Amino acid sequence: MIPSTLSNDTIVALATASGHGAIAVIRISGPDAIPLVDAVFKGKNLAHQPSHTLHFGTIREGDQILDEVVVSLFKGPASYTKEDVVEVSCHGSPFITEQLIKLFLKKGARLALPGEFTKRAFLNGQFDLAQAEAVADLIASDSALTHQIAMKQMRGGFSAEIKALRAQLIHFASMIELELDFSEEDVEFADRAGLRRLITTLQKLISDLLQSFEMGNVLKHGVATVIAGKPNAGKSTLLNALLNEEKAIVSDIPGTTRDVIEDEATLGGIRFRFIDTAGLRETLDTVEAIGVARTKEQLQKAAVVLYLFDVTSTSPAQLQEELQQLQLPGVPHLLLANKKDLATPQQLESFIHLENLVFLSAGQKEGLEELQKALLALVHANEALTGDRTIVTNLRHFQGLQKTDEALQEVLQGLDNGLTGDWLASDIRRSLYYLGEITGEITTDDLLDNIFTKFCIGK
């Protein structure tokens, strides 16, 4: 368990990924970080060097040279943890890093626990709790968009909105608390109509943040994109073409795909989870029927649906009937007219009037660029991805906003029922508590441990 309060000890950990590499970085933070490294570093006297400087030398244990290194010096409070920090860049041999860390432990450091560097940064006021959590999201980001969202949150975009909400509530809470001090005189310092307007405004802002969580969750884990259609429409061929590998078995025999096949690809900075499914049809084959049932389950969970049909053997009327049976109201989808290379001009012309239609030939890899553009346009049409809107991606933040909204609703009910100031103050304090938990203005040991133990060791 990570200590819940600041400690006076000095911690050390490998900050880069374990395994062989060109270089590795060992991070040391704490009051003795500089003298501890100075004691084994043969080069300039680190204690006499300015902050944010690099120094070449050797690390020695007695007369034995363990490695040639570059030492990066960061004197507190101008460091990540706001403590004295030394980062030792050495050769990326697991044996060397192990020997150096053992030496630093002998000199008085202790091994850092997961997330302990970032926790020290939080406890020292470097950033708030929501920003600290964004550090982990930034490390885990695997697309341009998730990187952009995490960077915005780490730089305080989400925190600024929460703090602004909290500041407005604090003002009214203080006015109501003041009323309680003058309860015998029956005076009102807090304008009830103004409080109602504020609560309504806050609920609208919170509602927007809550709604963004669905898209945020999709972006964080990949946009679930289901490829559906009748047997032999070319779904598996399309999946292989999108992934540029032979992921799914392709056959002219109907019903070849009997289970869900899934893989990921990043298009235009957005990660998509492409899901190939069994062909939709009535069947007496027990195994295939299970596959069709799973296809329908995936369609219910899809963020986007790519409905593929064979343009050479499907009429517009048949397609409309298939879509009605599919029941996709409200689900973003594209209609993919496959096998355009085999179709007649009349067949292609009969579908040209449809919206969200893309002509392609999955087998010949024709039309894939148009498909990717249409798919990105479909996702970008979501307001969460446009402008400078804050997107909630953290479940803890989502739950905190839900509880805040519930407490605010009780404030409104209290106003409707003419409750006294002490009851209103209680509900407002609950709202402030839940908002404060998000940014870390209010914390518990269990909460901090739960957050920071999920970090990697060197962070």
Shape: flat
- Rounded mean pLDDT is 82
Based on the structure, what is the oligomeric state of the protein chains?
Answer: single chain
Q: Give unreliable regions as ranges.
A: 248-258
Count of alpha and pi helical runs:
15
Q: How many strand units?
A: 13
Can you write the helix and strand succession as a string? EEHEEEEHEHHHHHEHEEHEHEHEHHHH
Strand count, sense and barrel status of the largest sheet are: 7 strands, mixed
- Main structural class: alpha/beta
Alpha-carbon Rg, integer: 29 Å
Strand content: 15-25%
What percent of the residues sit in helical stretches (DSSP H or I)? 40-55%
List the strand order in the largest sheet. 3-4-5-6-2-1-7
Terminal Cα span: 15 Å
Structural notes for this entry:
Strands 3-4-5-6-2-1-7 form a seven-stranded mixed beta sheet. It has a six-stranded mixed beta sheet with strand order 9-10-8-11-12-13, with helices on both faces. By secondary structure, the chain is an alpha/beta fold. Mean pLDDT is 82; it is low at 248-258. It contains 15 helices and 13 strands.
